[in-house]
Structures are given as C-alpha cells and as structure tokens.
Amino acid sequence: MVTVLVNISVAPAQESSFVAGAKKEGKVVLYVSAQLSLAQAISKRFEGKYPFLKLEITRTSGENLLNRIRTEKLAGKILFDVVYSAQPSHPNGARLFADFLLSPEGQRIIFEDRKIPVRSDVIPENSPLHPGGLEIFPGPPKVVTNLSHYAAKFEEIFGPRR
Questions:
Q1: What is the per-residue pLDDT across 51-101, written as a single tens digit (0 to 9) for each?
Q2: What is the DSSP letter of 76?
Q3: Sign of CA dihedral 132, 128, 143, 4
C-alpha cells in the first residue's frame, strides 16, 4: 500500500505555472517508508518525465519517518515536499510528483512492484488483483483500530511471522 500525503490544492499539474515554478525549485524531497527499490523505480521514471527535477529520497521505517516529521515540525524546519507538508519547500515539483504518481504510468510502477494501484485501469482484467475479482472482507473496527495489539496476540499464539 502506498500512501502519498501532500498539502496542495488538487489541480492539473500540467499548468504552466507549476512547471515554471518546479523548474526554479529544481527538486522534490520525498520521505518514504516503502521499499527503496520501489521509490527508486518511481524516481527514475519521474525524473525521465521531468528532467529538470531531481527527486531526493529519504527512506526509513514508518515509525521513524513519523518521528522525523514530528521533529522537523517542532523545530520549525520542514525539509520534505511529499508525505505531508503544511508548507512544502517545493510545491510545484510536489504537484508534478503527485500527478505523476497517480497517472497510469506511475500506477503501472506500483503494479509492477506487486502492489495494488489506486487506478484499476492499469491492472489487466485477468489479474487476481483486478477489482472485479476481489472479495473484500471489512475488519471489525475494534480490530482495525487496535491492529498492533491483535498482531502481538497473533504472534503470542502462533509464533513470529516469517
């Protein structure tokens, strides 16, 4: 699952003001807890599409990532553009990145990494991941909101997951 949090207004990223602004910024700073190989694949194609932008990736675990974001916020020095940012350092580049990541090309990268993309139009209909063939079983709210507790119980009963 890939979650992208960007504090920007939703508008077509191809607007010339975004592109002109992004060219001046020259980079987009991405904090990610996904696998580095996936972030690098996205980076390579994003930079191919927008060669005037360098995607700087910082990869760490989810908990460490949240701590880093909190620390930056407390220090009043936000250094990233894509994750969540009240005042992104490079807003135009972030808009282009968000647009790219949600495009069919960006979502194909997600699918090629065996993740479920948000766009069903990039998943072949014969794929077991196609929404038409998925069976959804919602989890009880008690379990969903206390997932770490139930994961620990699972490991207590069945042993560590492999």
A1: 999 999 988 877 788 888 889 889 988 888 777 444 567 888 888 988 898
A2: T
A3: negative
Q: Which residues contact 77 (CB under 8 A, 6 or more apart)?
A: none
Residue-wise DSSP of 109-145:
HHHHTT---S-GGGS-TTSTTSGGG----PPPHHHHT
Distance CA 34, CA 38 (A): 7
Q: What are phi and psi of 60, to 5 degrees?
A: -155, 170
- Where are the chain's structural domains? 16-122
The whole-angstrom separation of Cα 91 and Cα 82 is 9
Which strand (E) or helix (H) includes residue 59?
strand 54-59
pTM over 0.90: no
Which DSSP string corresponds to 135-149?
Answer: ---PPPHHHHTTHHH
State the Cα–Cα distance between residues 148 and 155, nearest whole angstrom. 11
CATH superfamily for 16-122 is: Periplasmic binding protein-like II (3.40.190.10)
Of 94, 112, 129, residue with least CA distance to 41: 112
